[in-house]
Amino acid sequence: MKLADKTTTAVSLVKASLKRIEETQDKNIFTFVDKERALKRAAEIDQKIQNGEDAGCLAGVPFALKANFLSTHRPADASAKILTEFLSPIDSTTAEKLEKAGAICMGCVNLDAFAHGSSTENSYFGPTKNAYDDERVAGGSSGGSAVAVALDCVQFATGSDTGGSIRQPASFNGVFGIKPTYGAISRYGVVAMASSLDVIGFFTKSAEDLDLLMSVTAGQDPKDQTTLPDFYGTDDVALKKKSIGYVKEFMESPALDSEIKTALESKLAELKKQGYKIVELSMPTLEYALAAYYIIQPAEVASNLSRYDGVRYGFRTENLKSEDKTPLDLLFENTRSEGFMRENKRRIMIGNFVLSSGFYDAYFLKAAKARTLIIQEFEKAFKEVDAILSPVSPNPAFRLGEKVSDPVAMYLEDVMSVPVNLAGVPAVAFPVGKSKTGLPLGLQLIGPRRSDKNLIKLSGELA
Amino acid sequence: MSNKYEITIGIECHVQLKTKTKLFSEVDNDARGKEPNSCVSPVDYALPGMLPRLNGEAVKLAIRAGAAMNAKINPSSRFDRKHYFYPDSPKGYQITQFYHPIVGEGYIELPSGKKIRIEHAHLEGDAGKLTHFDTYSLVDLNRVDTPLLEIVSMPDMSSAEEARDYCKELWRNMTYAGVTYGDLYNGNMRFDVNISLKKPEDTKLGTRAEIKNLNSFRSVERAVLYEYERQSKILDKGEKVKQETRGWSDATGKTTSQRSKEEAQDYRYMPEPDLPPLNLAEDFIKAEYDKCPELPADYRRKFDGIIPADTLEVLLDYAELMLRLAEIHAAGQPVDYVANLFASVLLAEENQSLLNDKLPEANQLTELAEMKAKKELSSTAAKEVFIKLFEPKHASKSPRELAKELNLIQENDSATLEAIVDKVLENPATKKAQEDYKAGQEKVLGFLVGQVMKESHGKANPAAVSEILKNKLK
Questions:
Q1: Which residue(s) pair with A428 in the sheet?
Q2: Beta carbons of B438 and B448 less than 8 angstroms apart
Q3: A4-17, pLDDT tens digit by residue?
Q4: What is the ipTM of this complex?
Q5: Do residues A204 and A170 make contact, with C-beta atoms less than 8 angstroms apart?
Q6: What CATH fold (topology level) applies to the domain B414-472?
Q7: Label partner for B80 (CA 20 to 30 A): which of A374, B161, B342, B414?
Q8: Stretch 9-38 of chain A: residues touching chain B, C-beta under 8 Å
């Protein structure tokens, strides 16, 4: 991370960032650029440095907020129409901590509306393009964050990961991305997707930067009762077995791209050379992870999106006339029909179906039981190995429009990333070079709960 | 009510807990007299990205309420979401405890001694309030997520009186435990009454109707009586009672259909992922459980044969009075006279405002009772002293001091009394009366006692005077 100091001013860092944002406009990364405030904050930080005051461990570092992070300074619309007119009276805990440490927010970056998607194509503001190929997707849902870092618009970006939303775009764009242990970082002030799966994380160009950001933002927050007692940097689970596993079922998956498979094999060979024991793990219950995920996640999504009803804030329909319906019903129906994207509606429908009376036991409860088995399978694996090396996604970045009309194909993108969210364990995605056609390839290291720091370190060694 | 059908009643009661702040946020829970939408945090308002934070005080009060219904506290409970769309519910769901409630099985003991079983009680957030006008409605979210404890009884009641008694006893127990302000008029406790009828020979319960949102014991009783008539008429005709939700109108004295079973909402319950399971340590539970004071049933046992049952039932509505009586009783002093003072003076309509003032201390009340017993005070004088003790300027005085000040101490000394009697008898104005008495007109004695009282400035003990007069006029 390049910090502001006596020689490099924060203003020059911010100006460089603004220039890159300008140059990369065609990629559709930023949905709002906070130029004036960024320059003002930069000047303040430079003044502090001039005065010899402590300007923070992230002094002058430009960063981008995924647009589902609430902020009093800029829109927090989650790239969703229904939130376009919403201005937040509060700041997310994470944004607050970052700014307190001296980082400078350059604005908000694009995502699939409400983080529903794996390509950023579901955004109200249109898709963000892949950093290396305008014909291909950025990945998602944190597509804007990944591309912003890959193309040096900012030094880091925030993200949220519910089923792979940080790791997959990180690997599609050749940057680092962390999905921390569930509860490591406060979710307060981040537009919720699926509460029991959502985690806050980051995109950077190095493992060291991830470590720095984790040390600034991790920790218990009274405003989020699901946060864990502070552990990052003090009470992390050590990876001492010198043993790395890989998942047999992933390795043998016919969907796995051959170049990703080769990259995985070569990294395993590298580890073996370094003295690691390589263990083949059979994790048969992971087969059910995607199905369980696409029950639990839409259920929580449907519930979390219930608050967008046009009564109190955000978009409200003007279409309130009908002969057979009350204005109140129309307010709800039309606000939601007009305000949500197609994919949002699909998940609301699925979610309400699996929660409805008579189906709860068959779907939601079954999925919850499968989740428990998946947690147990990871626990068992981590008795044997320090970490699991795995693909993030079965393939590199796909073409824009290739999967957006085929929801099942899109959901299959998540098959290797969602087990991590269901289990609540941490994972770090890191770049491992490029494909023959020049597309970034990425892998992920998955570790036991609270092994975040050591996982970051190991990923840095492997990248 | 005829005896043709047996009635089965189960009651759900929503108790507003008197916490300082709301169930899931840090804003003021007491919105009385405040502007609409002024006690609302971003969490209650359901802004995006907001997370509930469970109020520990509400958990403590729920445990204490559990103790007040002799219930088990579940060491591990959870929260769930109950979904419905309405402007009174900003989140689009209510946070409640559907699957794993905090309070388990318990019971409430009625004055009759019958125990009404409690199925469970759970914590949940209240909804906001809508006011409807012709073409628009106004939304006030001040009440959103005020902590509620919903207490669900078993269908153990079988008459309107029992239903009323249960509600009243529940209200008493909750106010004794100090978990709610218990202001029924302002909806601090609201009752949903489930009523079904069946023929005595039937083993299966009949179809029930649920009467929602009753807020007085009287309306609970009346609604049950009305429903008995309504449902028995349906059954008499050989028709079936519809399972539905009904509303009650105090004005018309009738229940009316609101929503049938077919129209019932699917609440799509789901575990609340934003709150971790509520795991309570054994000593934490015990500490709160032990804060539950003595309950009406305990007082009934304690004062059985000491305070007349009907007097006691009246006094039991006032936890503060019972605490004072218990204090006096614990000090080994008699409580019967004080109980009588409470019932006959304090609860008399003209004196009820005194209940808002500071109640005299136990030692003051004991001394007052002693003075009355020793005839230092006439019963009228004792009542006067009692009432005066509520006045701030007299509140810290001993009753004896106050009685002296008010010149109310009764003269019992026989020599003194005899001297006064002699003086009255020597007065020529009483000669005629003395003669009449001696001639057998006994009621004249009252006139003579009155003359002595007048001479003593009201301080003579009239009973003693009467005896002295009788002796002297023999």
A1: A178, A445
A2: no
A3: 998 999 999 999 99
A4: 0.95
A5: no
A6: Arc Repressor Mutant, subunit A (1.10.10)
A7: A374
A8: none
